[in-house]
């Protein structure tokens, strides 16, 4: 049975979606893990179809791990993601997400646009759900050399540099996905002793 890792994102111009795809690549590189790319509806709802399916609460409840990404929005997560989490009270009451690993990622149009505060604010609902936060350790060489995105709090992208993810941003996002997936296996009581 594959461990199902949700890669949830909201993206307005595509940068956060590009990071989500790199994290999914990292997840899928771990044997026994499968990334499910999901998004949330716009507020107000958009007439355009989403690039990935909308996340359901049942999928979230049944996941083995979660990566969540948002563009920087005044130093915080975007309203559509906040709206999604505000309706997760039944999962919080049941403890459905307790002890599942989770990580966060973001994108901004300016280098000092609030990446770290956005990453930290996205961790708050995850902590309230009892999830275990996964970051990027400094043992990752790209964290020392990046000149655009990437933080110990999670993967990030500075969109104004070229509009494309840098090599370091891709590497760090993939490594974060791999780390999240590997931890989901290690934390699973069914596979912990194998």
UniProtKB/TrEMBL annotation:
Q: Which GO terms describe its molecular function?
A: NAD(P)H dehydrogenase (quinone) activity
Q: SUPFAM superfamilies, from UniProt?
A: Flavoproteins
Concerning PANTHER family, the annotation shows: FLAVODOXIN-RELATED PROTEIN WRBA-RELATED, FLAVOPROTEIN-LIKE PROTEIN YCP4-RELATED
Q: Which UniProt keywords apply?
A: Flavoprotein, FMN, Oxidoreductase
Highest rank taxon of the organism: Bacteria
Q: Which EC number(s) does UniProt give?
A: 1.6.5.2
The Swiss-Prot or TrEMBL record describes its family as follows: Belongs to the WrbA family.
The record lists the organism as Vibrio spartinae
Question: What is the required cofactor set for this protein?
Answer: FMN
Report the protein name in the record. NAD(P)H dehydrogenase (Quinone)
């Amino acid at each position: 049975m594959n461990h199902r890792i949700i890669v949830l994102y909201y993206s307005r111009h595509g940068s956060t979606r590009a990071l989500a795809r790199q994290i999914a690549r990292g997840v899928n590189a771990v044997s026994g893990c499968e990334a499910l790319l999901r998004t949330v509806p716009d507020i107000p709802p958009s007439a355009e179809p989403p690039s990935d399916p909308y996340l359901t609460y049942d999928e979230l409840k049944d996941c083995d791990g979660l990566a969540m990404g948002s563009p920087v929005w005044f130093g915080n997560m975007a309203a559509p993601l906040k709206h999604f989490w505000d309706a997760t009270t039944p999962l919080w009451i049941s403890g459905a997400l307790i002890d599942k690993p989770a990580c966060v990622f973001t994108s901004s149009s300016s280098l000092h646009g609030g990446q770290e505060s956005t990453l930290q604010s996205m961790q708050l609902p995850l902590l309230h759900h009892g999830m275990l936060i996964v970051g990027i350790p400094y043992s990752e060489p790209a964290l020392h050399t990046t000149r655009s995105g990437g933080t110990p709090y999670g993967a990030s992208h500075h969109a104004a540099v070229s509009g494309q993810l840098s090599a370091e941003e891709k590497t760090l996002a993939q490594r974060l996905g791999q780390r999240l997936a590997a931890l989901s296996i290690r934390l699973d009581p069914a596979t912990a002793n194998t």
